[in-house]
Amino acid sequence: MIGGTSLPATYFSWSGNLMLVKTYLRVVAAMIVREMSTRFGRKPGGYVWALLEPIVYISMMTVIFGAMARAPALGTSFVLFFATGFLGYQLYQAKVAFLSSAVKANKPLLSYPNVAPIDAVAARFILQSATTLLVSVIVLSAIFSTLPVLPEIDWINILGAEFFAGMLALGVGMFNSVMFIRFALFEKLYGIATRPLLLISGVFFLPDSIPPPFRDVLLYNPICHIIMLFRTAFYPQYRAIGLDPGYVAQVAIVIFVSGLIVFTFSRRTLRND
């Protein structure tokens, strides 16, 4: 009662929910700072390596394939072709690699009542998304500065590729977080099974240039569609035959929901094992 007037119950409900949101945001923010310190260190060199890694890889692929072919599979710039393929691939791969060990790496923090397993996943997802965005902007800006004509960028397709890749990575990452803790062998098997993804996802070639029926089999891989969608944002003339946003959306939703269910029903395992 304030000034003789009783406050409605909804006031206390909203006030309590607001406090919970503030606590959650503080926990996630603290974990992001911790992850930055752990991953990149307290020296600038850690951040520099996050930028140098894709630059070195893209440069290496440009030199190798430039010596083997007269022109890239799309456009006239080898470096832009490989950059759009590799950065499109990293939209998924960099996130899922970081998310899969989120709970395992932050196990000691889960002894605190305010820290939940999902907080570790959220912190790593936000940090990796920001890192990937920064690296992509710097790398592509450097490439654009060398081109005689700047490409017309379709931001809708970039956001679509990022959204689908994020959903896929969250679903697989949450599932792996549980499986990596429950079964030590699963982590090794997963690493072996997913190692060829870089070669079969369309980073070095255009999936629609592969003759059927091999192309049809290849396009069951949702990462192929993500990379194709990402590339169309920089190549307006690219028709991307076989690209199906509806398919990748369905796969992303199913995997995200499945990963979330497994993660939610394994909270006790994630805290105690």
Automatic annotation (TrEMBL):
Transmembrane regions: 12-33, 45-65, 71-89, 163-183, 218-235, 247-265
Keywords: Capsule biogenesis/degradation, Cell membrane, Membrane, Plasmid, Polysaccharide transport, Sugar transport, Transmembrane, Transmembrane helix, Transport
Species whose genome carries this gene: Rhizobium meliloti (Ensifer meliloti)
GO function term, MF aspect, one: ABC-type transporter activity
Protein's recorded name: Transport permease protein
GO terms under cellular component: ATP-binding cassette (ABC) transporter complex
Cross-referenced Pfam families: ABC2_membrane
Major place of residence: membrane
Chain segments annotated as coiled-coil in the UniProt record: none
Any one biological process term the GO annotation gives: lipopolysaccharide transport
Protein family per UniProt: Belongs to the ABC-2 integral membrane protein family.
PROSITE patterns: ABC_TM2
Cited InterPro entries: ABC2_TM, ABC2_TM_bact-type, ABC_2_transport
Membrane topology field: Multi-pass membrane protein
Subcellular location: Cell inner membrane; Cell membrane
Annotated gene: rkpT2
